[in-house]
Structure formats: structure tokens, C-alpha cells
Amino acid sequence: MSEMNESRRALIKGLGLGLATCPFALGAARAEAPAQASAVTAAPQAGATSSSDRISPFGAHQPGIATPRPAWGMVASFDAIVDTPADLERLLRRLTERIRFLTSGGAVPQVDPKLPPLDSGILGPVLRPDGLTVTLGLGSSLFERHAWLAAHRPAQLVRMTSFPNDALDADLCHGDIALQFCANTQDTIIHALRDVLKNLPDQLVLRWKQEGNVPVIPPQPPGVMESARNFLGFRDGSGNPDAADEALMARVLWVETPDWTAEGSYMAVRIIRNFVERWDRTPLTEQERIFGRTKITGAPLDQPAGSEADVPDYAADPEGEKVALDSHIRLANPRDEAGERHLMLRRPFNYSNGVTRSGQLDQGLLFIAWQASLEDGFLAAQTRLNGEPLEEYIKPVGGGYFFAPPGFSDAADDYLGRQLIDAIGRTPRKT
Amino acid sequence: MKTLPLAALLLATTAPAFAEQAALDLVAPIAEYKLYVTENTETLVDETRAFTEAVKAGDVEKAKALFAPTRLSYERIEPVAELFADLDAPIDARADDYEQAEADPEFTGFHRLEYALWVEGKTDHVTAIADKLQSDVEELAKRIDGLTFPPAVVVGGASVLMDEVAATKISGEEDRYSRTDLWDFHGNFDGAYKIVELFGPHVEDKDFLASVEGNFAKANETLAKYREGEGFVSYEKLTDEDRRRLSALVNTLAEDLATLRGRLGLG
Ligand code: HEM
Ligand SMILES: [Cu+2]
User: Fold this and answer.
1) Cα-based torsion angle of the residue sequence B144, B150, B152, B156 in order, rounded to the nearest 10 degrees
2) Taking CB atoms and an 8 Å limit, are A113 and B267 in contact across chains?
3) Cα dihedral A179, A180, A185, A187 in deg (nearest 10)
């Protein structure tokens, strides 16, 4: 086995340490970490998680971004019914109340049996947090709809536009508000979505949702981690920056501006269909050439006997004889100066929806990327990827760009998005 | 436009369960509701006759003009009509309720005629369906006449109507050939509001009532923008913004009205 890169080594050395703390954090994002910590996109290991895992909703940053990706995730997009700043504040406060409840778990309140129960009941009478995170994103349409909000639009928040290979379905795009739900089990994210829908019917109208999962792998020896595989059978996440490296995350993920958006992050969501039948009919060498990595281990093709942690050396391979110049990883991150600037943290899920009209599987990737700069992150990478050979096997059909506001604290009166409401100036600024 | 505050509901558990004898007070509003339903079924029978006769006479324009207004009385009393599934389906089912959609021989009733009028543009092949619709609504009227109205069904009808709109109407699926969906919304809102009007006075929580009334008023306001003559413009004219707002109002009313039965002590 070849040398492990610095950041992976640092990560593994950092096992058991809380992830993604930052100078303002109220504590480790993960209050009760599972037995072994993991890279954000490492494959979840069987037996390593439990329904009592609790990820604190509090902190300088929202959870669900730099916290390890659990087995299940969903993005739900909503239209927001908001006319005044007070309406927006009410929405945010009520949403926060639901998040506090859902992520801490406990007994579900019971009411007179002549009334509909307050809770769907799908998790039983006592909720377990099950590693649930709920991450709020705001879409550009929200800011565009109201004059009093327009001035507060996050600087880089734009409406997603179509790339050359896209076939966007209007019913799967955009939204005023996105909620990302992640948890150990599918039932927990469905429960959380239904809870939000039931409690905020007057302000949130569902537009679309997509859920997905990542394969859980058998328990590994201590310190061994591998990235989870996507539906093309490749490990996905090897090239991700190390979420345990706070200084790096401060650069990659968190917005550093002197306005309300500080410590927030931009979210790019793409629903990308994979033509899996066609892919499965493609020779292995071709598949590997398209990505620039081996299928089994994920090692870069310039070090095929190595591991997924090895960093490709493009300077030594200027003609792309080993890692093709138009391979996915080389285009997505040329690992030059531009590549260094253009970092993002990918945290995707695989989805499987059903069958298309032509009798093919409707499967793909719920691509979710987080970054401090949408332009330098997702937009730059996607622009470089336009025309890549992988396009023959993928078709982006939906998604949107959102801005995840900074986190909130456990102070009783604090809530998600307070910084925005304060900026609008409706409520006196808290100290 | 508040939803029911959680606290108010939680109180319900600690306070003594909703008055058991409340059901007794409901005799009068139930009788009144039955009257409302009977009036509507009578209108339905008469108007359906005029409609089906126009269909059979091959007068496409006249039949088109009568289609939406005729359905109004049906949409108002839908929760009661739905008690008779063997009639509701042949009267009001949509093409997608059948495996072969429009081509399915089982597909009958209003929407089959709607399809003939707006899409096929002729009626000579659907005279039997017109006759069947007429006899089905007459049978419905007869059955409703003999029906003892179960209080829980009557009161529950308010949220059923809102659920219907939320689940399959807001999307414009109901009257997809004629685009007269807004007439149906209106009928459903009317029918739900009638129930609130009759039973509301027996609800203790006046804030709840005020919020429900407020949401009905807002829904009416939004629909009013689309009025034209006796009825409404095409569903396609509904802006995304108004559809969003109606969705939120309908979902909120559905949630709130789902507590109406319990609030009146009905299990
Ligand atoms: C269905 C669509 C996609 C699939 C199946 C896919 C798959 C992969 C795989 C297998 C890798 C190699 C393992 C790794 O480094 O994580 C990878 C790397 C990467 N992908 Fe994708 N990807 C997809 C879409 C995208 C999109 C839309 C972007 C951004 C616009 C993107 C950006 C990246 C980046 C930045 C890397 C890391 C490159 C590196 O640092 O070496 N991918 N992807
Ligand atoms: Cu109907």
C-alpha cells in the first residue's frame, strides 16, 4: 500500500475528536460521536451508528455540512409564504422549534384521541434522534420576491441556470427554501419532513424532494475508512478536502464577509440521473479512464496499485497518459493553483426512484456540494466539467442553489436565520 | 393565518376531554346541513338533466357552458356523495382512475363527457354515458334522501373537502380538458365553509374559529381575482404565486379542520 496523503493521515490521527469545531462553536458538532469518527463522505459502517446518536443542532455553523454523512439524506424544496419581515421571522422561529424537537428526540406529546395525533407516529411514541440533522438553505427567489429582502441577498446567491448537458425539469428545480435532512435511517428523515409539513402548512408549500442513501459497509478494522460508492460503482469522496481540518474548512466552506452571511455556506444541489444500463455495458478500462481512478480501490490511475487517498501527480503526467486530461477528477480538480482556490465539499447521496417510460432504471446522484464561494466552487468545477466524457452517462434534471445561514445557539430565544432578521432590522440586534 | 398553536392542543389533554354531551347539541346543525345537501342534490338533478340533454342533442356549445355550473352543487356536497362509492366513481372519477385512462370503457360520468366535449368535440358516441350520468345522480338523490347523516362524517367533511383540493385539485388535475377547476375549488370551499358556519358556534376555542374564518376569507379573496361572469376564468390563468398561496391556505385549513370533529366531541 502506498503512502497516505497528509490530510487523510491527519484525519485518521484525529479519530475521536469532534469534527468541524470553529472559534465560535458552542461545542463539538457531534456531541456523542459514534465509536469511530469518519471522513465526511466515508461509507457508514454497520453497527457503528445507533438510534441514540445525537448531533447537536447548535453551533456557529449548521450541522449537515461538515458533519459526517450518515446513510440517508434528502433535500426538500419549498415555496415560502412570506409577505413581511415578521412573517419570515415567524417561519424561521417555528422551523427552529421543530428542529430543536426533532434532533433532541423524546416522548411525542399525546392529545385527546378524538383529535388527529400531533405526530405521524412512524417512529413510535418516543423519538430517537438517530443522527438527524436538518440544514436550512435559502434560495435566490426568496430574496427576489420582496423589496425588503432584496438588499440582503447573499452576494453570490443566484438562480441555477442550465449547463450544456442539463435537461432540467421545472418541477424539480429551485425553491425559496431548501431543507436537507440527514439521518441514519430513511424513516427518520421521512418523519422529520412530515413533521415540518404538518407544523408549517401555512408557510411552507412543498415543491419537490429527492432522497437518497449511501451503502453501509461491514465494520472495518480501527482506522480504516473508505469512501462510499455511488451508483456507478466508484468510490465517491476520495478527493474531498478534510473536514477535520478547521483552517481548511474555514477557507472551503464558511463565508467570511462582514455581513449577516458570515459563517454560512453555499449549497449546490443537483439531481443527476445516471444511465446505469449504459454504464454497466461499458468496458472497465473505459469506466476507469472516464473517472481517472480505479474502480475497486479508487486509486488514481497514475498510482493504480495505491489507494484512494493517494494524490495524483499531474505535473508528472502532463499529457494525460495515465490520468486522462478529460477525466472527471482531473477536470473537476486540476490540483493546480486554480484547483486550490476552487474547493468544495461534496456530500452526495445515491437515489433510486423507479422506472422510466423506456423501461430503464431511474437512478442517479443527489449531488450536494458545499462551499464558501459558489463561483469558485461548484460553478467553476462544473464549467470545467462541461463536455466531459462522463456526460454520456449522466443527465442533470433538477436542483438549485441555496445559501445556508450560519448556525444558532442553544439560548432559548435564538433561532436559525436570526442574523438575517437582525440585518433586516425588524428586531433589535442582540448582543 | 396561523395554524393551531401546539399549546392549545396540548391543553386539550390536560383539560377534561371534550364535552361528551356535545353531540346532543349537534342535532340542529345536522338537520340544517341535511337541508343544505338536499337542496344541492335537487339542483344537481335538475342541472344535470339540462346538461345531459344538451349533450344528447349534440349541442356542444351549450353543453360546455353548462358543465362547470352543474358540477358546482356536486362539489359542495362531495363528502356526502362519496359515502356512496358505487355512485361517486361513475359520476366523478377521472381518466387516471382507470387502467386504460380515457380509452377505458369503465370511464364514465362528468369527466368522460368533459373529454367528449373539449377534446373529441362531438357527443354522438356518448349519449349512453349521458343517460347513465342522469340516472346515477337521480339514484344519488334518492339515497341521500334516505340517509341518516352520521355526525362525524358531516363534521369531518370540512377537512375532507380541503384534503381533496390539496391532494388532487390544486394541481389542475380535476377538470383537465375544460380547465374549469376554479369552479370546483369554489364548490369545495363553499361546502367546507357551510360546515364551519353551522358547527362553528359549538366550538369553544374562538381563536381557532377566527383563524379558520380568516383563512376562508383569504381563499375567497384570492379566488375572487379570477371571477368572470357567473363563474371563473380558465385554471391556466391562475398565477404560480396565487397557486402557492391557495396551496398553503388549503393545507392549513385541512390541518385545522381535521380537529373539528374532536373539538365537537365526535370520535
Ligand atoms: C452523477 C454525477 C457524478 C458522479 C457519478 C461523480 C463521481 C465522482 C467520482 C467517482 C469521483 C472520484 C472520487 C472522488 O474524488 O471523490 C469524483 C470526484 C470529484 N467530483 Fe464528481 N461526480 C459527479 C458529478 C460531479 C459534479 C457535478 C461535480 C462538480 C461540479 C463534481 C466534482 C467532483 C470533484 C471536485 C471531485 C474531486 C476531484 C479531485 O479532487 O480529485 N462531480 N466524482
Ligand atoms: Cu370532484
Assistant:
1) 0
2) yes
3) 20
Give the CATH fold of the B150-266 domain. A middle domain of Talin 1 (1.20.1420)
pLDDT (tens place) for every residue of chain B, 267 residues total:
344 444 444 444 444 445 454 566 899 999 999 999 999 999 999 999 999 999 999 999 999 999 999 999 999 999 999 999 999 999 999 999 999 999 999 999 999 999 999 999 999 999 999 999 999 999 999 999 999 999 999 999 999 999 999 988 998 999 999 999 999 999 999 999 999 999 999 999 999 999 999 999 999 999 999 999 999 999 999 999 999 999 999 999 999 999 999 999 997
- For ligand 1, atom 15, which residue shows the shortest CA distance? A239
Between helix B181-199 and helix B60-76 the angle, nearest 10°, is 30
Q: Does B150-266 match B27-148 at the fold level?
A: yes
Binding site annotation covers A328? yes
Instruction: Please judge whether A201 and B254 are an interchain contact, meaning their C-beta atoms are less than 8 angstroms apart.
Output: yes
Q: DSSP letter string over A6-57?
A: HHHHHHHHTTTSPSS--TT-SS-SBSS--SS---TTBPPBTTS--TT--B-S
Q: Do the domain assignments include residue A207?
A: yes
- Residue B152, φ and ψ in degrees, nearest 5: -65, -35
Write out the residues surrounding ion ligand 2, Cβ under 5 A. B 92
The domain in which residue A298 lies consists of: 3-426
- The ipTM of this complex is 0.85
In a domain, A422, yes or no: yes
**Number of separate domains in chain A:** 1
CATH number belonging to domain B27-148 = 1.20.1420.20
